[in-house]
Amino acid sequence: MTVQIRIILAICYIVGAPVVIGLLDGFDRKLSARMQGRRGPSVLQPFYDLKKLFEKEFLSANIMQLFMIRSYLCFIVLSGILFFAGFDLLLVVFALSTSAMFLILASTTTHSPFSTQGTHRELIQIMACEPMELLVAVGFYLATKPKTFNVANIVLNSNYSNIVFLPGFFIGFVFILTIKFRKSPFDIATSHHAHQEVIKGVTSEMVGKEYAMVTLAEWYENAILYGIVGLFLINKNPFSIIGAIAVILAVWFLEILIDNTSARVKWQLMLKLAWGVTLVAAGMNLFLLEIIRS
């Protein structure tokens, strides 16, 4: 992949990710409302909300919080550039983990009991998700010939969609997406709705431009996560992109369905389920992959 193509893909991510994910968020609200027997807001409502937040007067409980939130946004954008420009997938996972630490540090700079409780739960969510994220990178490495973590080479060297060799990894990754997207039943640290016992959890003390940056960062992160879902389907055949988009939309709808048909669980059950699925689905797939590729 040439440098020019990498630059174009990086620019497309920076400009296009908020637009695409914002629209998906708008349709998410619309579908969720219809499932609940309501009319729902406009599809463009997420953009109106983001604009309103950026227009608010700047107020910060702690100047350090602003620095941490900006760092959180920058590291997620960096992760997306690395992924969509075709660089190292393992580096993308580590950069995403680093960005999560900045969000936690931003939450701990305040002394709100809701933020503190949300921070503890956010750490538990990271514990639940990180093993699967790392194993996905390892799975792509083992499934590709020659073995590589490079995203561009994973696509260009694959004659078939990697989901053929990594079905367990795909199932496990889709499972943790419910946690990453903060959907019920795993929206224990914070939620898109202020209807839980910790109110908004880690984002309770974030207002105006700070909360807008967190929302924007979540959109960029969601684009990366959907991109990884697509990576399971995309191969050297350009038509595989159509299949990848179809699967991404199917996963997106599945997450909405789960969110509207399940009740919030305790963190203990979330951790057991996440690690259980990781061990069974990804672990067995990893074992079989070693046998097949040996």
Q: In brief, what are we looking at here?
A:
The chain is mainly alpha-helical. The chain has helices at 3-35, 45-55, 63-84, 89-108, 113-143, 151-156, 167-180, 208-231, 240-261, 267-293.
Quote the distance from N terminus to C terminus: 29 Å
What letter string, H or E per element, gives the SSE order?
HHHHHHHHHH
Strand portion: under 5%
Total number of strands:
0
Radius of gyration: 19 Å
What is the overall pLDDT average? Answer: 90
| Number of separate domains | 1
Q: Given the helix and strand composition, which structural class is it? A: mainly alpha
How many helices does DSSP assign?
10
Biggest β-sheet strands, sense, barrel: none
Structure report:
The structure is a single chain. With 294 residues, the protein is mainly α. It has one domain (3-293). 71% of the residues lie in helices and 0% in strands. The chain is built from ten helices and no strands. The two termini are 29 Å apart.
Keywords:
mainly alpha, 294 residues, 10 helices, single chain
Any chance you could write out the topology, listing elements then pairs?
Layout (H helix, E strand, L loop, with lengths): L2 H33 L9 H11 L7 H22 L4 H20 L4 H31 L7 H6 L10 H14 L27 H24 L8 H22 L5 H27 L1
